[in-house]
Write a structure and sequence with these properties.
366 residues, alpha/beta, Rossmann fold, 2 domains, 6-stranded parallel β-sheet, 12 strands, 45% helix
């Protein structure tokens, strides 16, 4: 079977579609790509979609990428299935035009309206526009990929029969970046990386780090975004926190693997309760102990291979990190358990299994 991965996605910012492509290749599919990155991160896309007066700039940029995609698509042998990468709310329509008789898979990891709410663009005409964009994208797809059972349940009822749950998983580079051993002395090394969105609950992390001042815990906070200022303010009392603007995608696995603990998310919003974030899969693959929020999807994905704390609870996060700083045997157990879980369940070949089943159910293209 020949698969074409298609769209304006950027795997350096969102590795999800690369994981799907690698998984399809591992299953023996002939996978090609038509990719023209839009050059905008999620926040910029949502901001432009939610502000109609900025739409011409987005549409102009999108049109130029679509010309490139259309030219590249004409040079490709006819695929048996087309996979439109994450943030492909518009790309799916171009795919439908170019490949009229081919099944179209849309990686609908997070809806535009859901992302808008997470970035506090809630209510009014902006949310209405984002909901319309989501609905149009879902209508255009034959198969809709989501990442958790909770996101499946959140889809409009008429689309659920076409949806399949494919966990986010971890790229192969993260599985190759495993740390060598748990620290047996010295400070506990903790890392967080992300875009400081409300979903991630970084002010909660900052408050916990502030309470850890003077303890045997060192933290590296990587990234930038809307809640950074609040997180830094909350952690200001702790001089053992290092703040880094960002790390190139190719270097991030080895940087994270050099720490004992990878922090997940701690937000309390609806979206935060429905996801298992990239960093949980990636940190586990890199051999870190995972400390994240105790939500249904994360509990289901991680079981006892992680230390879970209530969402939004800085005191509980503080206590969890102090526990691991004091109990290096438990730290070693969690690191080993997370790594083993990642190898068995989070690698590309494992996470795409439900999608492969669904593509088979879809039947041969007419």
């Amino acid at each position: 079977m020949r698969a074409l991965v298609f769209g304006t996605y950027d795997t350096s910012m969102h590795p999800r579609v690369a994981i799907i492509a690698d998984g399809l290749r591992a299953a023996g599919l002939d996978v090609a790509e038509c990719n023209a990155p839009l050059g905008l991160d999620t926040a910029a896309r949502v901001d432009m979609l939610a502000r109609p007066w900025r739409a011409p700039a987005l549409l102009g940029r999108l049109a130029s990428r679509w010309v490139s995609l259309a030219r590249a698509a004409r040079r490709q042998p006819r695929p048996d299935v087309v996979v439109v990468g994450y943030l492909g709310h518009f790309d799916v329509h171009l795919a439908r035009i170019l490949f009229r008789r081919t099944p179209i898979v849309l990686d609908h990891l997070v809806g535009a309206s859901d992302t808008g709410r997470d970035r506090r663009l809630d209510g009014g005409p902006r949310q209405a526009v984002l909901r319309l964009i989501d609905a149009a994208a879902l209508r255009a797809a034959d198969v809709i990929v989501v990442d958790t059972d909770e996101h499946l349940a959140a889809l409009p009822a008429r689309y659920r029969a076409r949806a399949v749950v494919v966990p986010v998983g971890a790229p192969s580079a993260w599985l190759a970046a495993e740390g060598q051993h748990a620290a047996i002395d010295g400070p506990l090394r903790v890392v967080f990386y992300g875009l400081y969105t409300p979903l991630q609950g970084t002010p909660v992390i900052g408050a916990a780090l502030g309470k850890l001042a003077g303890s045997a815990v060192e933290a590296t906070m990587i990234g930038n975004g809307q809640d950074l200022k609040e997180a830094r303010s909350a952690a200001a009392a702790n001089t053992a926190v290092s703040w880094r603007d960002w790390v190139p995608a190719a270097e991030l696995p080895s940087v994270v693997a050099g720490h004992d603990v990878c922090l997940g998310i701690f937000g309390t919003g609806e979206k935060a309760l429905r996801v298992v974030p990239n960093k949980v899969f990636q940190g586990a693959a890199a051999g870190c102990a995972i400390v994240t929020s105790d939500t249904a999807p994360q509990r289901r994905a991680l079981g006892d291979a992680a230390l879970l704390v209530p969402p939004g609870d800085a005191e509980a996060l503080t206590a969890a990190l102090l526990r691991l700083a004091d109990d290096r045997a438990e730290l070693a157990r969690l690191r080993s358990a997370a790594r083993e879980l990642a190898i068995e369940h989070f690698a590309p070949a494992q996470v795409v299994a439900p999608l492969l089943d669904r593509i088979g159910q879809h039947g041969d293209p007419p």
